[in-house]
Amino acid sequence: MTTVILANARLIDPERDEVRPGGLRIEDGRIAALIDGTDIPDGAMDCGGQFLAPGIVDLGVKVSEPGERHKESFASAGRAAAAGGVTTMITRPDTTPAIDTPETLEFVERRASADSIVRVLPMAALTKGREGREMTEIGFLLDAGAVAFSDCDRVVENTKVYSRALTYARALGALVVAHVQEPILSAGACATSGKFASLRGLSGVTPMAERMELDRQIALAEMTGARLHIDQLTTARALPALERAKRNGLDITAGVSIHHLTLNELDVADYRTFFKVKPPLRHEDDRLAVVEAVASGLIDVICSMHTPQDEESKRLPFEEAASGAVGLETLLPAALRLYHSGHLSMPGLFRALSLNPSKRLALDSGRLSEGAPADLVLFDPDAPFIMDRFALLSKSKNTPFDGARMQGRVRGTWVGGRQVHG
């Protein structure tokens, strides 16, 4: 049995909603005991008064295996995740080919187990080929290790097919992850409609496209009783519908990407394609409303929505460029902007980054309690740096934070009690 002691830290406990001085004793990969105060026992690692928190559980990471390994592999994504304090990646099935069969899922699990230094839990596609015509073998995929089902940014337009898939998922207790952008209105759009998009000559989509699809998803969840997680909720107009659905007892949670929490449409500036994401960046009023929704608990999860793209797919005119941004290494320092601005407390931040995604997926991570896995991140929230995209460990370098002044350095990451970074 291996014993590791981390002492003289500031423990962030999202379950108790508190920060307190202390440390942890780790045995056999799990937290064996909590240590109070700032004493440093013999043989302990001195954390120097820095913050020690549950490792981040990132719900919605794209690793480009199979099919596009040049963009991101499990090895490179694992290193990037560890450097960013992410100890569990919940990976998306929007690969080439899609992860829609037990055989493809087993391939992903083998590669992840062999190559990634952090935990990897895969999602599977809800319909075959993510084409929205025929549902996948949800039961077999669950048995093979799928933790949730999603067609990612391809909305299942056929309501009959979708309702059948949701009904089947409910019968098996499976979680469905939905993308709420009305597909016809959103087709071809690369910006949020309004003055900025008009001045730049960019094709826009109304924020109501999100509200319309959310209303449809809520109605189907009510009809089928399915467990539903909205991957990204980004507009103020959608929030009242989510609040009503939760108040009415529907099993619905929602997330938001760190880019929509910390950036707005004006950051696109002179057609900077690293800021082209899906859904598009929103108005500042929307951003502030969504930040408040995270603070209040209405939105449950903050994720990176890590989407690697190569240089060739980004060095195109804005409307033709691929959507998406990498985020594994920038998730924590970007999220700390919300802490430094006073919008979120440290426990509140890690409730959205670690505890809530763990709860939604029925994982025992995301906690600082005896018996929990020793998946941990040690960080200095005040350490300043200038983001250099070429220093990122991801294979792809498409970060919107390139050249930005940021605060927050990860000093150590542990997965199952084993230090994988720092």
From TrEMBL:
Keywords: Hydrolase, Pyrimidine biosynthesis. GO terms for molecular function: allantoinase activity; dihydroorotase activity; metal ion binding. It comes from the Bacteria. SUPFAM superfamilies: Composite domain of metallo-dependent hydrolases, Metallo-dependent hydrolases. GO terms for cellular component: cytoplasm. GO terms for biological process: purine nucleobase catabolic process; pyrimidine nucleotide biosynthetic process. Residues 49-234 form the Dihydroorotase catalytic domain. This is Amidohydrolase family protein. It comes from Pelagovum pacificum.
